[in-house]
Amino acid sequence: MELQPPFRKIIHVDMDAFYASVAALDNPELKGKAIAVGGGGDRGVVSAASYEARKFGVKSAMSNVLAKQKCPHIIFVNSDFARYKELSAQIRTIFFDYTDLVEPLSLDEAYLDVTQNKKGNPSANAIAREIRERIYKETGLQASAGISINKFIAKVASDINKPNGQKTVHPDEVIPFLEELPVHKFYGVGKVTAAKMYNLGIFVGNDLKQKSLEELVKLFGKSGVHYYNIVRGIHNSAVKPNRVRKSLAAERTFRENLSSEIFMIEKLDKIADELEKRMLKNNTKGKTITLKIKYSDFTQQTRSKTKPHFMQTKKEFFPVVKELLYQDKLVNSVRLLGLSFGNLNTEIKEPFWVQLQFEF
Question: 233 and 175 in contact (C-beta within 8 Å)?
């Protein structure tokens, strides 16, 4: 089956090691060195790592202790979200010079639909190069880009020539590109699904393509339809310029593990204050409250309860939080607690976790 025009022109711009690069930008002495962003204490976790640190196997979500073992000369720097947001806004302003169809995914990446663009430039590849050049000239930071006919392929492509590069997958290259793509890089294929596919002899897109729609639905349920389409280049998700936060949440990592529910209630009380403040500030209410628990062995658990009415204030939702905490026995000591509101009155669903602070 050949893909039929007209094709959209989608760019995925991804900043290169954004947090670490900002640290080096603001402190030139760090340039070219192995950097980890996050608290430097033994209880800390790496938020981001420079490419120099990644060469030693350091990556995000890794404990600082392990990061030091892998890279003894690593330099830890504190996060500076005010600075990240400042530069992100500056970069986003550049995007809007080319199109209003900009969908930010985070502070350091975004999709742009340049099918019809403000420059009247028919070449998405040329636009991506110009955007990357402007980002470097105006901020001193480097970005990579992927260009193709849909968001999925553009995102995969942006990772191919990192750092400071770009990759275009033209319409006539899409099918061969997808056939050679490892299945774990496909949308919706996590570790568990990838392992299942491997057991079925499905390792790359071409293997996946040999399965009929009926077989895929039988094996993977509704997701089977998605896999059937995406391996054939069918992914019609539009670039959404007005993405809305899908929930409100707050969490905290502790200096010492907590093993008593009494101490956890004290911590949750403070987190609830912050969550209430966020709910009131955004004039948001929700029906579903979720308790997030991360244990000392880094396993994670969430417990949720949905009420028939909307809640907004701590007085309304904190009794539910206590109920969730005592709902089941804790399996280990706890290093992180978080609260989130979902099922909001803004009709949004996915959690958007915000780290309040590290107690270091």
Answer: yes
Render pLDDT for 215-255 as a digit per residue (tens, 0 to 9).
999 999 989 999 999 999 998 889 988 655 556 788 888 88
d(CA 200, CA 336): 37
Low-confidence residues in the chain, pLDDT < 50: 348-355, 357-360
The pLDDT of residue 359: 39
Q: In which element (H, E) is residue 357 found?
A: strand 355-358
Q: What is the strand order of the sheet 334-344 is part of? A: 300-311, 286-295, 334-344, 248-258, 355-358
Any alpha helices (H) in the chain, and if so which ranges? 18-26, 51-54, 64-70, 81-96, 124-139, 151-158, 174-180, 191-199, 205-209, 213-220, 223-230, 261-281, 314-325
pLDDT of residue 352: 46
- What is the model's pLDDT at position 38? 81
Chain centre to alpha carbon of residue 247? 14
Q: At how many degrees (to 10) do helices 191-199 and 213-220 cross? A: 130
CA–CA dist 275, 290 (Å, integer): 12
- Exposure b/e, 273-287, CB count within 10 A at least 16 = b: ebbbebbeeeebbbb
Residue showing tokens 């004039």: 283
Check: pTM over 0.85? Answer yes or no.
no
Length of the chain: 360
Peptide bond into 182 cis (omega under 30): no
Side chain identity at residue 146, one-letter code: G
Beta partners for residue 14, in sequence order? 109, 144
CA-based end-to-end distance of the chain = 57
Nearest to 108 by CA among 135, 68, 137: 135
Q: Any idea which residues carry the catalytic annotation?
A: 109
Count of alpha carbons within 13 angstroms of residue 164, beta-carbon side: 8
- What tokens appear for 319 in the block? 């009794």
Cis preceding-peptide flag for 163 (omega within 30 of 0):
yes
Q: At what angle do helices 81-96 and 18-26 cross, to 10 degrees?
A: 110
Q: Which residues contact 335 (CB under 8 A, 6 or more apart)?
A: 43, 253, 254, 257, 258, 294, 295, 296, 298
